[in-house]
Amino acid sequence: MGDYHVRFCERFGVKLPLSTRPRWNCKYHIVFIPKYRRKVVYGKLRKDIGAILRKLCEMKDVEIMEAHAMPDHIHMLVKIPPKMSVSYFMGYLKGKSSLMIHDRHAKLKYNHGNRTFWAKGYYVSTVGLNEKTIAKYIREQEAEDRLRDNMSKREYVDPFKDK
What we know:
The chain is 45% helix and 14% strand. By secondary structure, it is of the alpha+beta class.
């Protein structure tokens, strides 16, 4: 290692790994939805989708740090190797999982048309120092949504309506 790199590391307090093997920590919060935002991620299908996504992630050496299937979308906190782009991984994950879901649940093809299961696109955000906050959000989102739904069921009186 050159003298410049040593001075840089000393100046900014960077600790170098002891080995020469590269270290990486690329974490992403990903959200994607079924086509037409159908509320199909329920019961047995929910368990199968979870198993399929875990298997596909394992095949690509992607670590699922936290994940939760909501009725109409999937949240995942994943650690993707830097050699793989997020867009490549999502294309692989959504494409292969769609085929596997339709293989296991053939009736979906007849109920919803072709073999596409996921909608185009996805949301992705890098995870920095707020990893614990995002993991907690993914874990507790369903309970919070139910609480909000219960609160919004009340009928309100319109204050601007004449009595």
